[in-house]
From TrEMBL, chains A, B:
GO terms for molecular function: DNA-binding transcription factor activity; transcription cis-regulatory region binding. Keywords: DNA-binding, Transcription, Transcription regulation. Residues 2-56 form the HTH lacI-type domain. PROSITE patterns: HTH_LACI_2. The keyword Transcription regulation applies. Pfam families: LacI, Peripla_BP_1. This is Transcriptional regulator, LacI family.
Amino acid sequence: MATIQDVAKLAGLSRTTVSRVINRHPYVTDEKKRLVMNAMEELNYVPNSSARRLRKQQTETIAVYVPRITNPFFSQMVEVMGNYASDRGYQLILCQTSYSRNQEINYLELLKTKQVDGLILTSIENEWSSIEPYMNYGPIMLCNEYNDQAQVPTVYLDQIEGAYIGTRHLIEQGHTRIAYCSGDNHASRVASDRYTGYKKALEEAGIVPREDWFLTNAYSIDDGKRVFNDIAKMNDRPTAVFTGSDEVAAGIWKEALNHKWDVPNHLAIIGFDDQPVADLIGLTTIRQPIENMGQQAMELMIDSIQHKLPSKKKEIKLDFELVKRRST
Amino acid sequence: MATIQDVAKLAGLSRTTVSRVINRHPYVTDEKKRLVMNAMEELNYVPNSSARRLRKQQTETIAVYVPRITNPFFSQMVEVMGNYASDRGYQLILCQTSYSRNQEINYLELLKTKQVDGLILTSIENEWSSIEPYMNYGPIMLCNEYNDQAQVPTVYLDQIEGAYIGTRHLIEQGHTRIAYCSGDNHASRVASDRYTGYKKALEEAGIVPREDWFLTNAYSIDDGKRVFNDIAKMNDRPTAVFTGSDEVAAGIWKEALNHKWDVPNHLAIIGFDDQPVADLIGLTTIRQPIENMGQQAMELMIDSIQHKLPSKKKEIKLDFELVKRRST
DNA sequence: TCTATCTATGAAAACGGTTTCATGATTTCG
DNA sequence: CGAAATCATGAAACCGTTTTCATAGATAGA
């Protein structure tokens, strides 16, 4: 591999001048510039990025944390983030925490060892106090997830509102017996806020939330199937169910079909996210503006890296949209 | 940030000895080792990865190319690759080519500039001759995609066989009027081989493939919907359709339902991949062992980086499985 | 015309590690 | 007991850039 030294020699100039050409510094005559360009071309030279990183103390790489990339919500997020980063000359390192606290902490070392310039968390597994110390080593941002203690830029949706909209919709459809079904991540405000929004809608309508219709630990299609069976076994059943994701909703519906239940007449189901599958099967759902979120977060991150902005709380709140289909 | 020099000073030793401790070299007394450990602890020291990369000439990072991460086939692939890489201490850089030749070439520079130790291609947009020169800069591997000219390790499935199995299944169900529907990437053998397999099954059964039932450019759910409408408009219609992905199949089915067609009686549909959505909607499909492929590819890649194996053709062929559901 | 500023270039330092080489102490072995 | 091998450590070179500093010529302003 040719080095900058080789180029300098061939061009009959110093390393410094070659470097100036590469980095588009002023004060290089056109003639020398041409000499350097030709030499680079001839040697098929490209600057070594490790050396560059070391000297410039920056990596042009950003880490994005997701629980699992196979979750369509997160893969959509990563898609837009990756494309936007690429447009601005940044690489994206994918960190899958697999819902594991340890894995999350492991990956945080990336920032400390200067393998990335900054990181974007789309979910949090640990208490914020475990994450905060890493803020010394580079910018950290939240996207989707949010946290009261975190003094960092945050692009998010008001999940209270999202759940409220969904639950209200069910109430407007005439339901009063509405179950609630979600994942439960204690370090995450997303889950608790949704429950708050759900209760708010119920209470406004004079309905008392029932403990036995509070179903947790549901993330996947399979979890949805299990949830359906739990509901089917109840003596006193709900007529509608609010879910925390389209996958779970799809699982419930699928299993309901297996048991010859009619959706929405025997059970109305509302999903969350508006993933492609929701349109496919006709699921009413609450759309999250994923593209918008992902792009804004990445934009903010790159800006704060490039302008070395001090980290501070800055909230960007986006809006939900109810998408009515035939499951409600 | 503390450097190795700071640690050395605090421990009263040389940089060399500190480096030895970090890298678990032999020939360091337990006492000095302890001194170094304490100093590192006290200074909250971690080695700077850029410096390390520069000196060791390796990055412990691998690039994975996919067309789009939102395609569930590829997100599953990336999930297992990412997890396996992480287990072995490697990072994964995600490169989305967006089906663009330019974008693919852009990303290839990553290898040349030594930002990654190697790269795994799950699809190819350019002619192999455009990619080959980059083999000088580090190991390249194929996973899923394959190419006759590429003298590189390849983990793949025999797509002729996959399409053959699917088409045979349709024939065994009594169909003789079978349409073919897929994407069309000319640089990829996946597409052409599938068509070969399809024709092989037809010809064995004495059926002549029909040009007007050869439908291309189908990748997404929306494409599937379009394809259905194309079929519906035909005067002389097929009774079954072979598709190149579960998404496309799902789109066809969805649109068929909209038009009150009965699947499989009016139109039998077979998908490809066996993604979660296939189980959800009851789609017959051809399962690809994605986890297995991804893991084997990543394993091969890391081994060849660590043992500096010379790049050569080495084919690992895995098998398909037909999953029968109610769409056929 | 003289000085201040701007332009153009290169030598050397710096980034923060790892590896090579040299050296002395200690152990092993014939 | 002497030579060879092994153990333990540090100085210095090295990885390949960018940045700082120094220098000199050209230009502008007074």
